Structure formats: C-alpha cells, structure tokens
Sequence to fold (1091 residues):
Amino acid sequence: MIAGPRRVPVAGRIDPHRPLRFSLDGRAFTGYQGDTLASALLAGGARVIGRSFKYHRPRGFLAAGVDEPNGLFTLGEGNRTEPNAQGTMVQITEGLSASCQNAWPSVRFDLGAVNAWFAPALRAGFYYKTFMGPARRSWMTYERLIRRAAGLGAASHEPDPDRYETRYAFTDVLVIGAGPAGLSAALAAGSTGARVMLAEQDGLLGGTLLGDPVTGDTEVWRTRIEAQLRSLAGLQILQHTSAAGIYDGGTVVLVTRRDHCRPDPSAGEALQILTTVRAKAVVHATGAVERPLVFADNDRPGIMLASAARAYLNRYAVACGRRAVVLTNNDSAYAAAFDLLPHIDSMVVADVRRAIHPSLAAQAASLGIEVHTSAVVAGVRGRAAVRGVVLCLGEGRPRFRSIACDLICMSGGWSPLAHLSCHGGIKPRYRKDSAAFVPGGYAAGHFGAGALTGAFSLQTAVLEGWEAGNLAAAFGGFTRAADGLRPVPPAAAPWESANHHIEPVWQLPGARAGKAFVDFQNDVTVQDLLVAHQEGYGSVEHLKRYTTLGMGTDQGKTSNINALGIMAGLRGIDLEDAGTTTFRPPFTPVRVGALAGRHVGRHFRPLRRSPLHDWHLAHGAQMIEAGPWLRPWYYLWAGDAVERAYIEEMRLVRRAVGLSDVSTLGKIDVQGPDAAQFLDRVYVNGFARLPVGKTRYGVMLSDAGTIFDDGTTTRLADTGYFMTTTTAGAEEVLCWLEFLLQTAWPDLRVHVTSVTDEWAGMSVAGPKARAALERAFPGEDFSDPAVPHMGCRELLVERIPMRLIRLSFSGELAYELYVPAGHAPAVWEHMLCSGEPLGMRPYGLEALAALRIEKGHIAGSEVDPRLSLDDLGLGRMARLEKPFVGRELTARAAGGPKRPSLVGIECLEPGKRLRGGAILFAAGEPLKGHGRGYVTSVTWSPTLEKFIALGLFAGGLDHLGEEIVCAFPLKGERVRARITSPVFLDPKGERLHV
Amino acid sequence: MLRVHCPLCGERPYTEFRYGGDASRARPALGTSSLEAWHDYLFLFDNPKGPHREFWQHEQGCRQWLLVVRDTATNVVREVIVARNAGPGGGQGPGSR
Fold:
C-alpha cells in the first residue's frame, strides 16, 4: 500500500468526465475540470512541491485556499511567465504548464538544502544586520548567491502580451465574500430592491460550505440560496473576484481573474479586470482562515490544516493520506476527522484541551475514533514526508506514544480575515472568547458579518449576514427585507458553538527545541521570535521587520496571530495589548498589468500632436517625444541621421530660410480692462506701456523669487494680449494665472483662456525670411517700418486670420506666423511652395535647439525653478519700481558671487565632445564632488565648427576666458573647455535686421 | 478614492482636480515689502490632523479654484466653495512648486 494522498470515490465538485492535462516541471499530470493545481497535484501523489525560503526544507501544501504559504508556482513560459502563483488558487486548464520555485536543480534533490547547515547564520535579523551593520561590504559579495538560493520566482523580462481592463462600477450595496454570511447578506440587500454586487474570490459561491460534503444538508441550503440570488434582477455576482483594497470614501478595488477562460488578447479578451467600485454601503463577509499549531517540524510535507484536508476530500475527492492524526485545540477539526474516516485506514485525534464537549466525545466514540485529550506533540518523524508522530499524553506524569501516520491535520483555531476593514486605518481588536482579532470598527456605511466577526458557526453567520445586508440597504435608503424571507440554515450539531470551544495555544510545549515554524513562507521559527525579543525587537512592527515575519506574498495570513501570541507571551503582556501590524492593500497580490489596465505603451499617457503632424509624417520627418508632444526631430531631406541632418538644417536657416513647427508653444489669450495691470504684476518687466502691435519678451517668477516661465506677449488691443509660454510650462502657467485672478486678485477684470490648440504656429527664419513672406502673401507690406523687430501684424489672407510676430529664437531675421489650427496644413504647404525658389525647407527640433544655443537664448533646461534672474543674466530686465510676483524674494535669491550662473562653454579639444549634464571643474583641480557647475545644453556648432554649450558655473562670467574641465563620469570622459559669453554668434544682433 | 463636490459641476473624482496647497493663511498683498511676511507665508506650514483649508482647482472641469475643507485624518471633504466668492483669501498656488 502506497502512503500519501490519492483520489478517492467522493462526489466532490470536480467533473470526472472532463479530464485536463497539465504539466509540472515538464512532467505530465492529469486533473479534472474543477481541480486546482494543488488538488490535481495531490491527486497525482505529489507531496513535496517546493523548498522553503531560507532553509530549503521540503514543503507540501499547508492550506487549500488564499492562505497557502508554501505552494507557490511559476505558471506559463516566456513572456507569459507568472511567478509566485498559489497552487491552491489556480484552476487548472488544458495544457497548463507550471514549474516549482525555489528548488535548484529540482524539488527532490535540492543543492540549496545546504543552507540548512548554515542555518544559524540565516536566523532572525540576518538581513537587517547584514544591511545595516559593518558587514555591509560582505553583503555586496554574497547578495547574488543568497538571492539565488533564497528567493521566490522570477518575473519575465519581456513585455506582457496579455490584455487587462480597468473599469468603474456603481452599486447600492457591495458584499465582499460569498460564504454563508455573504450569501445571506446579499439575499437580504437584494430583497430590499437595492442594486447589489456580490464579489467572491472563488469560482464557486459558498465559502467554507464548499468544504462540506456535497451530499450533506448544507449543500442543499447552499444550492437553494444561490438559486434565489441568481433570480434577483438587481444582483450582480462576480466570481473569481477578490477585493484588493478599500480606499477613501469607501471605494473598493476588485480584481477579477479570468485565467480559467483562457482569454485571447488579440480578440480583445482581458486576462484580468480591475473594477473600482463606488458603493453606497459595503458588507464585509470575508470569513476566516485556520491557523496552524506551532510545534517542532510542523512544516513536514503531509502536515496540513484540518480544514484544508477536509476541503481536499469533500471538494476535490482527494484523501491526503491513509493514516491520519488530527491535532487540535478546538472543535472544528473534528469535522475533518469525521469526514476523512471512511477513506483512511486509521485515525487518532490528539486534542490539546483537557476535556471536550460530551456530545462530541460521544460522536467520536460512536465512530470508533480514538481521542486523546491533554495531548501535545513531542516529535515528528520523516523528512520529505511525515512518517509518524510522537504524542505526549496526559498531565502530571505524561505518557509518550508513537503513532505511524502519513497525514497530520492540525487546527490552532481561526483567524478572521480582517484586512479589508483595516485599510481605512481602523485597528483590529482582540476578541478573547474566540481567540481572534476582529475588525475594531467599520467606516460609515460598512458592516461586518460572519466568521469575520469572530462568530464561527453557520447559524450566526446567516443571522449576522441577514442583519448586515439589511443595514447596508437601509444605509442607501431602502426598506429592510421582510424577516420571513430570512434563510434558515441546517440545525447545528449539539456540540457546535460559535467559538468552537477554543482554548488558544500559540505554541506547543517544546517548540523552542527544534524548528517550529510560525511563518512558513518566510521560514520564521519560534527560535527567531526568541532572538528578536532578546535583541529588543518585541513590538509587533519591529518584530515583523526584524524577522521578516508576515512579509511574504501571503502577508502572514496563517502566521501573524501565532507570532503575536508567542511574542506577547515572551513580553508577559496580553495579546490585546500587543496589537497587530498594519494591514495595507492589496489583500492578495495584484498583477501590475491589472493596475495599468490599458495605460501601456503609447496609451500610458495622452499624446499631443501638432495640427501639422500628418504633414510631417508624410514628408520625411523623424519624430521625437518632447514631454507629451511628438515633434519633428529632423527631416530626411537634410540627411538620414540626426548628426548630419540638423547641421544641414542649421545651415539652411543661417544662409537662406527655413520653416519650423512651433505649434507646441503654450498660448494664452489675456483679455479684460485690467489686462495690462495684470501682466505688469505677473511679469518681472513692464507690459502696461507696451504699444498695441508690439511684442515683448517676459519672464515670470514664482512667489519664492525664482524662475517660473518665460515667453513673449503681444499687445493686440488696449484690453487684449496674446501670451506665449514655454511648451513644457503651458499648463502650469495657465493654472497659476487663474489662481492669481481667482484667489489673490479677484477684483481684476481679466479673463485668461488657453488657445494653445486653437492657434498653430510656424517659425519663418533666415536671412531670406522677409522675401519668403513677400512671395507667400504678395501685396502685403512686410517692410521694416510695417513689421519692425518685436512688432506684430494681423493679416487676413483668403479669409484666414493670421498673426505675424517678428521675433527671433535663432538670431536670424525671423517671424512667427500664427494661423487657426484647421488652416495650418494649407498655410504651411503654401509657405513651402512659394518659398521653394528661395531654397526654403522645413527644419526640426534639433536644429531649432542648436540655433538658439549658438545665440545663447535660454530654454527648457535653463528655465529651472532653482535659478534666479541674476543666475541667468536677466537681472536687468526686472522693473523693481513696480510690484510683481516674486519681487521681494528675488533680491534674496540673487545670492553672491559663488552662485552658479549662465555662461557659454566652448570645447578646446578637437575630436572630443561636450555632454549635457557634464560636471564643471576649474582646470587642474581634482575631479571630486559636485564641481563648480554643470552643462545644461550642448550642440555642435557648424558656424564655429566646434562643440559649444550653455551651462551654469559658480561665479559665472567673472571667469570669462578661463579654462575648465567638463567631466562626464558615466562615460569616463573629461574634456578641456573654456568659459565664453553665452552669445556665440552675432553679439550685436545685426543679423536680426537684414 | 477621494471625491470632491464641485459647487459648479457636482461630485467628481479627485483625478479631475489639481491640488493647490494650504489656504489657511492670508497671502501677503502684492508689493508687501516685508521679507518676513513672505517667508512665513511661503515656508511655514502647520501640519494639522483634522480639518484643513486648502485650494483645489477643478482643472478638468470648470477650471475654478475652490476652497476646500478636508479632514487630513479621514480624507473626508467637508466643505467646498468657489474661491472667488470667498473674498481675498490666502494660500499658495501651483506656481509655488
């Protein structure tokens, strides 16, 4: 006879007519529809399914549900690899491929088990001490080895090919959990006429009832109430859906898994759906999970929770052994004993309690089960599988008894899943009669019911659920359901009570002697808790971080309460005074894909396109991302690589004329009788006396007196201005202007409107710019008197209104032409067509930026909120006699001669290049620390035939002509350079007036 | 997830809004020459547990700046009025980044 788990002839909830093939580490297995990976593996006789985290001890399944700490698998292959999936939560599908984790080269023969020999080194505080202490250097050495030996599964580095959806949902009542309490609550709320959502992480409704025999009374009840619920029109049932977290305003985030549907992303089918639910009221019916007992070698494969052994039998038709011992401190484990009995060869119950309820004892006796009270475990035999147990029986002079077994079902009581109720910051409270931490309260409109509240019987769950469902519906304004509709569950057995007559025991005597595991997933033992206590890490939050207890993917669902109980004992305090650690979302791991939804790749954030975007694409523009914008980087007419193309485009602008898309500039329409006064207040320089038809460059400061934004503003009328901002600052500037107008100066009669999208902009730049305009718009006067430098003319051409502003970013004669966005492609093409005899061509962002560097104009990387006007050499612009935002503090920000301020930098070493971000040092000084400044913008200057840059250097132009070193440690580069004026070209500005 | 009741647009998710900082102190009048007044306004903040007056802008709605009383302990928004109607008030805006 082969020991260990096997399939038995029990009806169960699997479909024996639908076999499914799957593989584990390449080995073929067969399961049935309805099996989880765990139940199918157990049915196939698998006992060791992984190695433990630190000590590489062989491990089997401990649980059958969401609390499983050991049975983690990597599912799928390649770009569909999903690490750390709980085998107890994965429904098998045809062709599923899974692999074991944390066992190299294999689960059965594990080289990592040598960790067990080094075990003392890996005990509590190992990571903490190694990170924080003098041994940090050795951590660098050993990190790679330890990470490989002690760890979880590895994620794929490839993009996730699956599709995820996010959505919002609204409901009157959300019921979380479809156990007896949740079913009852949903029926109550649904019967009031309220809209109800019922979320259940399992694929079936029933919660703990799914572990009952399918031939029993509770199944009849379960089936009936499910049918009632499904007949309610306003009730939506979400299966395979777990509540990940509860957030502000009672918002609940649900994650629906659809793995079992084998969704096809190319058909638009989602693997997971994340639902943000706004519910008027919420019923928490999340139930409870069973706790292990803590004794030496309690982690041997074949030792599992009693409720899990029972669920494997009744739900999946798997008996997890042939010779069973049940260890318990409460009544609930007897149900496992009774159900397993017909399918095994021997059964012994060892009860920690001195006495049990007479009717329970009588029932056990009538079934012929040997029950020992006052029994504890003295030892466990077997390594890769449990082979027997030595019990210590009786008080006073105990007797020892050795029992051969291949299955130990243990129960240390039940721990409510109070996590969600704590997400709002409400701490759980200890309920002594149930030896359980229960929700310490609920947010307004939230109600709890069932095992969550520490009342573990079916009858109380149904009653509490009914009440909570009614209260929740009433909170949303619905009238409570008639009590005649209340579902009545099967009667309880005479020994049953709401607390299972538990006598809490956090560790069995002698647990300190061997390895008695408290946290199975993170390999934390009683010994570790002892060390943590001795070293002063006794408070729950310290304990967690020092020992890593509860920090695994299971977040300590099976381990926390035992650990708290043991630590409270060590500290000599009551458990309720010890408290718990803080529960935070998510309740179960959530895939990053589900959080991202469809905000991936190009959809990660909105993309902005100029009205000329399509033209650019059709005419050889190579595009580049600039903030949210896609802009032409360079055009193929100038070369097929940016290094050559932008230089060709610069030559065009310096020698003839080019056309560039500047539609991305922020544009704000400023109107109102007080517009002039308003602009005088927000710009450092004056705008009130700017004549109509003239343009001025302006700088804005923040209240702190540092640079906020710059741009040009044109006066179109007495009461109307057209403001441009930097591309990056457009939204910030608008919000700031609105803030000032609405909160600080509500008396000013001014309105600001974004017109960024309404007006396209194109820059016509080069010595032949005026000729280009004259060819494009014959009959219009573009002479110097008609459109002087910094002047504006409004045109109406073919009924298209245009704004022509003569200003220059490149240092050449240049105009910005603004046209309504819808007309932009036509005007752009017209400009290029009519300018062709002049050699006019489009130029891109790289050339635009390089041209302005040659001219020393500041842009994005110099418009830095850490800098002052003086740092950028703009101090003389400020009209200090008028009040403006930031005036008072700009004086403070001016600083002294040591402040880094704007300089030009020219490369002195031909064949070498300057780089943005390079750190600047004086010649000859050691290249250490932060240096004297840094390079902000850099380009190759075809005009000067060398690399030039703008940068900030301590002392600024006081160092004009001095040699410096530009260091770029990331590439190990150092280049000799010289401080120059930031204006490399045409310092007198003569080219503006050709 | 926070929801803000915009007096003009109704109840909307916080993602439509821009946070604009502390509104509990009066902004020094334009041209106030006292550096101390600006220093206190810009750099000294209380960090209260409980009700807090702050500015929010319904950026993706009516674009109005709102004066919001939010409980910092519970994130419950207790009161919302249009800032323009609150008279010359205090506080910092987005430009103080």
User: Anything to note?
Assistant: Residues 109-115 of chain A have pLDDT under 50 and may be disordered. Chain A touches chain B through 31 residues (CB under 8 Å). The domain at 609-663+758-852 of chain A is CATH 3.30.1360.120 (Gyrase A; domain 2). Chain A has 23 helices and 50 strands.
